[in-house]
Amino acid sequence: MSTTSDISRGMIIKLDGSLYTIIEFGENKTARAAAKVWAKLKGVDNSRSIEKTWNSGDTIFPVRVEKKPYQFLYKDDSGYNFMDNETFEQIALQAEMIDAPQFLKDGQEVTVSVNTETDVPMNVELPDKIVVLVTYSEPGMKGDTATRTLKPATIETGATVNVPLFVNEGELIRINTKTGDYVERVKE
User: Fold this and answer.
1) N or C: at which end does the chain have fewer Cβ atoms within 10 angstroms?
2) Which of 151, 148, 168 shows the shortest CA–CA distance to 160?
3) Across residues 32-38, what is the average pLDDT?
4) Burial (Cβ within 10 Å: 0-12, 13-18, ≥19) of residue 119
């Protein structure tokens, strides 16, 4: 049995019949009252975001999660299709279960979190940073690099990312999948 002292960021807990990921947590201590533990929670099986407060030492119900490497295959009417790298078993998941579906490339390695109690996939995480090809971008003006001006560029997955003016069509760039921001140009 776990208590509020076991809470950590990224932990998945069962609360009121639903699963939630702990995004942020902390403790409030006052001189007169007992300590309280608070957490910001994001729904795993629903799209709700809530805040919850417990008395210090209250019981919580963590869900054991196993992270497995999967490969993205393709997208069709049934959803996004992934293959387990060990068993070659395929699963189809909806876009709501994927952190940043707009950045998925064919053959890309992802991490799927599976609830060990029910063997049901809960979410898909892309690597923090990925390298993609710029398929369309307006040409930058020569000498227009003094300021940190950005322009939209379409990448190979079809998503649009804001990039500096010196990035041109056909170049490889590294982007942060969590924020969707340009990180750097990649030399081949």
Assistant:
1) C
2) 151
3) 86
4) exposed
pLDDT tens digits, 120-145: 888 888 999 999 999 998 887 666 56
Nearest 5°: the CA angle 158, 81, 180 is 35
Q: Which pair of structure tokens corresponds to residue 33?
A: 């009252």
Report if pTM > 0.85: no
Residue where one domain finishes, among candidates 60, 88, 109:
60
- Cα-Cα end-to-end distance for the chain: 51
Contact yes or no for 96/47 (Cβ under 8 A): yes
Q: Quick one: pLDDT at residue 39?
A: 93
Classified as helix, coil or strand, 81 is strand
CATH number for position 142: 2.40.50.140
Total number of domains in the chain: 3
**Inter-residue contact 80 to 92 (CB < 8 Å):** yes
- The residues near 94 (Cβ < 8 Å, ≥ 6 apart) are 79, 80
